[in-house]
Fold this protein.
Amino acid sequence: MKKNLFFIALLLFAMSNNVWSQISYGGTPRSFSKNNLSQKFENKSLPYLDVEALLAEDEANVGKPVPYRFGKDIDVHYNLYNSGTWETLDNGDRIWRLGISSENAHSLNFICNEFFIPEGADMFVYSQDKDIVLGSFNHKNNNDIFSFATTIIPSSNIVIEYFEPAELKNQGRINISKVIHGYRNLFKRGPFGNSASCNININCPLGDNWQDEKRGVAIIVTSNNNAVCTGTMVNNTNEDGTPYFLTANHCLSNATPNWVFIFNHESETCNGNTGPTAHSIHGASVVASDSPSDFALLLLSEEPPADYNVYYCGWSREDVVVNQTVGIHHPAGDIKKICLNTDPTESSNYSSGYSNTHWTVDNWEEGTTEGGSSGSALFDPNHRIIGQLHGGHASCTNLSWDKYGKIAYSWSNNNNSNPSKRLKDWLDPKNSDVLTLDGRYLNEPEFAIDAALSAIVSPHSGENCSSEIIPIVKIRNNGENVLEYVKIVCEVDGSQQTYDWNGSLNFGSSTNVNLNSMQISDGNHNMVIYLTNPNHQTDMNNSNDTISIIFSKTNGIDVTVSVLTDNSPQETSWVLRKDDGTVIFTNPSLSSSETYEQSACLPNGCYDFVIYDTGGDGLSGLFGFLFTGEYALSVDNELIAISPENGNFGSVDSIRFCFDNVNIVENQSDKILIYPNPVNNNLNIEFIGNISDAKTIEIMDISGRIVAKQSVNNVPNIRINTSQLQAGSYFVLIRSSQGVVRKQFIKSN
C-alpha cells in the first residue's frame, strides 16, 4: 500500500501568472471589474479541526491498506438558496458570491452533489486575495451525474462566484456537499517534479522504444481528491475501441463516476519537470475487480477523443517468467516516468493467502516506483501488459521488491464464475481463448475496409428458457470507408442462416442487428457468428470478424429485471434471490441515467426481488422530478411489477413472486383469449382452439398463492368474478394432463 503516497495538488494544475489552470473556459470573475458591487457577502466559517488527532490517525494507519490523506472532508449544505449573497445588476443579471474559510487550512477545495449551469451562466472559484483563480466553469462542465469537484486552492479563504443572466433566473443548481480542509501542506515542493531524483522521464532515451505504450498510461485522481493512482488503456479481442482501463483494486473508491483520468501528462524533454493536463476524461464504472491479484478493470465514460492519440495496450495472460520488464507510471503524482528491470520475474503471492497471484520485481536497475504508481502496468519484452502494481518497498534509496498482480491470474481469478471478478469476459469478448493480444491505436482507421463484430448481444451465454431465439449482434465499422453493407452468417450446431445488413456506419460507429428467429431444442448449443463481404468487397482485417458462444436451452421461466438509474447511481443496488437466500444475480457497477437489464432462467419456486436506495428517495432523480429512474420485473415476458410513477420507493422496495413451471405447454397460449385486460370485475376466458383434456382453471397471484379455482367442464367460455381480488398482476393457469398453459392479466381498482 505504500504506492498510495502522493501529492495530489500536483495533478490538476500548474502555477502561471498567479492563475491556476484546470479544465475550464477562461475569463475573469465579473466582480473583479464591477466597482459598484458590495465588498460584503456571506462568509461561512468551517468548524475547528483537530489536526493533531488526524495526524495521530494517519500515523496509526502507516502500512495499512488505506490511502494517504492530506485533508479532511467536512460535510456542509451550501447552495444558491440557503447561503451566499445575491446582487442584481442594472440590466437584471445577477451575481451570487459565497466565501468559505477554515482556520489554519493549507488548502481548500469542495465537492458539489448538485451541479447544473445553464448555457450563458458561469462560475469561478478564487482565493479571497484574488491571487489564484479557477474558471470559468459553464454548461460544458455539466455531466449526467450532476456533480462537480474542484482542484485544490492553496488558501484558507476562498470565494465561489456564480453569474446568471436575467433570462436564466433560478435555472442554475449548485449545492456544495463537502469542503476539504487540507491539513497537510502539499505545496512546499510544488507544483511538479515531486518524485524522487532517480526517476526517469518517459521521453529520456530509456523510453525511446516505448513511445506507443506511454500513450495508454494515465494518472487517476479520485473524486474526493484524497487518492491518486496510475492505470493503462487495454485492447480487447474485438479491437473495437471499448475504453477499458486497467488499474489496481486497492485504488477503487465508491465514487468512480467522479474520477478524472489525465492522459499525456509528460515532459517533452528528458530533463523537464512539468507537462500538460488538458487531455482528461471524467467518469468511469467498474466492470471487474477483485483483491487476490489486486486488479480493477474500469470502463471510461467515453472513448478518448482522437486528438488524445491514445494507445490501447496489448496484454499477455501467459503464466511464464520473462527476463526483462518495464514499468510506465506517475510516481508521487509526477509527470510520466519509466523504470527498467533486467532480472527475471518471480512468481509469488502478496498477503492474500492465494498462490501464484503476483509477479515479483526484485529491484529496478533503472528508475523506481513510488506512491501514485499503484495500478501501473508491468510490460514484458513484447510490449504486452503482464500485471498491474499492487505494492512493494522499492525506492531510490532502497533496492527492494515490487509486486504486480498477474494478468494470468486475474484472467479467470481462480476459475471464478462471476464475470465481475475476472478479466476474460471483457478482454476476450470473442471467447477466442488467445493467450496474447498486441496493442494498437484505435483513434484512426488502420484499414480502408474493416467490418468488426463487437458482440453477440443475444442469446446470453449460459441457460436460456425459450425454444425460440432471435440472435442480436453488434457490428462496428473500424474501416476508413463508410460501411453500407455486410453479410452476417449465424451457425448454430452447424445449421446456418445468413442475413444481409444494409445501412450507413462511419468509422467508429456501431449498431445492433436483429437476425432471423430460430427454433432450438433442449440441451447445449454452439453458436458461431461471423461477418463477410463488407461493401461487397474483401475485408482487409479478418481478426475481428468472428465471435462464438455456448448456450443452452433448459426448462424454466424467464425472469427479467430492468432498471433505469437516476442521477445518483451510487445510492442504488438490487438483488434477485430464491426464498432460501440463494442469490441469482445482483446489480453490476452502475452509471447514471442508464438502463440495465438482467435475465435468468429459473426453475419453479418462490423468489424475491429487492431494490435499495441509500439516499432514501428511491429512483426519484434530481430535485425529485429530473432524471427520474424506474424499475420493471417481468416473468415469462409478462410485466408483473413496476416502480412508483415518480420513482420514489423510499429506502427499499421488494417483490416476492412464485411460479410452477413444470410441464409448461409451449405454443398453446395463442389458443386462449382472456378479456378484458386489465379487468375490473368479470374476467372472460375463451378457448379459441382445442386444449385437450383441460381440467381446471386457476388464478394465481405473483406470490404463488392460488386465489380462485374453477373446473373447465368442456365449455368454450368461462367467466370468473375478480371483484374480490386486490389490484395487481395475476396469472391464469389452465391445467391438463399435458401440462399447464399460462396467461397473465392485470386486476385494476
